[in-house]
Design a protein that fits this description.
By secondary structure, the protein is of the alpha/beta class. The chain has two domains: 217 residues, Spore Coat Polysaccharide Biosynthesis Protein SpsA, Chain A; 209 residues, UDP N-Acetylglucosamine Acyltransferase, domain 1 (3 Solenoid). The protein contains eight helices and 33 strands. The longest helix is centred in the middle third of the chain and has 21 residues. The chain is elongated. It binds uridine-diphosphate-N-acetylglucosamine and calcium ion. Calcium ion (CA) binds next to loops.
């Protein structure tokens, strides 16, 4: 089939300079959600109708399989679809979706296609409060006769609770004629896509309806309030899918997944964690409260304690992280490594069993197996112009408050005394320290507070 996504509207009620369809839901533009869903149906043509903020929209969602049709003036939904016509394959049906209706599921669209792709299909839903929507008008036999917009409806028609979601499937060959025949003699002076229904019926084509699995699938975003509401619906769905898959969540209302989160068996996640991009958690991983984890792979049995931030990093199995650890891009922790509070690791490898438990910066470094990094250690990786690497071997003991001035290499088994500035390479097994004699003086008198 062809798929047309309408995304030309301005979205005045968002009160924002950003085109409405580019506002984010779960970290992705609304329109990207619709395009992703469209792709699951493998359309032969995928056309997005752009108007308001067209350049920005093209740039944000442009991809080889997406074509754009320009609607320079927003003269109505029928007029919008008309702009896409030249890009459509007339021999297959056309499904129309909306760039501001992000949560429609593939299963619902498949149901509409099954009912309507040989005919004319409208996705409808019966709601408690139909105010604002187009109403589905049926005859005595229950067949759809027309769709009437709220602003054009009679008192009787306003009582109808079955509404038009806007999502339709239509034959494509006749669509050009039907759209060309649309009139804008209605209260909004627009060319309504909804009026095509009457043309289809006149052409002897049956108009059928299908319903979504859930009402929220058809909800659109017109304001920040609705955006926030749909974000909650989406996050709740994701949380419940995780629970169904066996993940323990301390509170399904307090997790945010902005991307994909894959979990092994017996994973547990405490409250207020945010997952972004692609995150994979192995079996028996436990995540403490208030962690932010973006694009990461975390191995089996690893424990991530509270307030840990991880971005573009990996951790092996049985690693212990946090509380208050920061792993920045390129941090790679071997199995059983420990990285503790106020330790920042960037573009660095910690081998199996290496430990940096307190107040440390490890950047552009390779740390050997079982090496212990004392509190307050800093790899001085930046000379003011370029970055350099620090290479530390296996079984090294790095005393507290050590500075390693890169580029520098420390061989296996070295012991570095507390407070050392290491600025030359150290060979295997040595003790390294800066000579500073400790002096104890007897002639010192403590100052006393002066009386005023
Ligand atoms: C439309 C339907 C209404 C339905 C409702 C569901 C029509 C005439 N009415 O009404 O029956 O109940 O959706 O939400 O179709 N757009 C364009 N170009 C335009 C006009 C609109 O791209 O010229 C896009 C908008 O950006 C939006 C979508 O089409 O994403 C719907 O347009 P909108 O004006 O919101 O239609 P409604 O009045 O809500
Ligand atoms: Ca609307």
């Amino acid at each position: 089939m062809n798929i047309v996504i309408l995304a030309a509207g301005m979205g005045k009620r968002m009160r924002s300079a950003l085109p409405k369809v580019l506002h984010s839901l779960a970290g992705q533009p609304l329109l990207s959600h619709v395009i992703d869903t469209a792709r699951t149906l493998a359309p032969t043509r995928l056309v997005v109708v752009v108007g308001h903020g067209a350049e920005q929209v093209r740039e944000a969602v442009g991809a080889p399989d997406v074509q754009f049709a320009a609607q320079d003036r927003q003269l109505g939904t029928g007029h919008a679809v008309q702009q896409a016509l030249p890009l459509l394959d007339p021999s297959v049906p056309t499904l129309v979706l909306y760039g501001d209706v992000p949560l429609t599921r593939t299963s619902t669209l498949k149901r509409l296609l099954a009912a309507g792709s040989e005919r004319y299909g409208v996705l409808t839903v019966t709601v408690d409060d139909p105010a604002g929507y187009g109403r589905i008008v049926r005859n005595a036999k229950g067949s759809v006769q027309k769709i009437i917009e709220q602003k054009d409806a009679t008192q009787d028609e306003l009582e109808i609770a079955e509404i038009n979601t806007g999502i339709i499937v239509t034959p494509t060959r006749q669509l050009a004629d039907w759209l060309a025949a649309l009139k804008n003699d209605n209260s909004q002076g627009e060319f309504y896509l909804t009026d095509v229904v009457e043309h289809a019926i006149d052409a002897g084509i049956e108009v059928v309806t299908a319903q979504p699995d859930a009402e929220w699938e058809t909800l659109g975003v017109n304001s920040k309030v609705q955006l926030a509401e749909l974000e909650r619906v989406h996050q709740r769905n994701v949380a419940y899918a995780l629970l169904e898959a066996g993940v323990t969540l301390a509170d399904p209302a307090r997790i945010d997944v902005r991307g994909s989160l894959e979990c092994g068996a017996d994973v547990s996640i405490d409250v207020n964690c945010v997952f972004e991009g692609r995150v994979t958690l192995g079996d028996n991983v436990s995540i403490g409260p208030n962690c932010v984890i973006r694009n990461a792979v975390i191995g089996a049995g690893t424990r991530v304690d509270a307030y840990t931030h991880i971005e573009d990093a990996t951790a092996g199995s049985k690693v212990v992280l946090g509380p208050y650890t920061r792993l920045r891009p390129g941090a790679a922790l071997g199995d059983e490594a420990h990285v503790g509070n106020f330790v920042e690791v960037k573009n660095a490898v910690l081998s199996r069993g290496a430990k940096a438990n307190h107040l440390t910066y490890i950047g552009d470094a390779d740390i050997g197996a079982r090496t212990n990094i004392g509190a307050g250690t800093i790899t001085c990786n930046y000379d003011g112009a370029n970055k350099h690497r620090t290479i530390i071997g296996d079984d090294v003991f790095v005393g507290s408050d050590t500075q390693l001035v890169a580029p520098v290499r420390v061989a296996n088994g070295v012991t570095i005394a507390a407070g050392t500035t290491v600025w030359k390479d150290v060979s295997e097994g040595k003790l390294v320290l800066n000579e500073k004699n400790q002096v104890s003086r007897t002639d010192y008198v403590r100052p006393t507070k002066k009386k005023s």
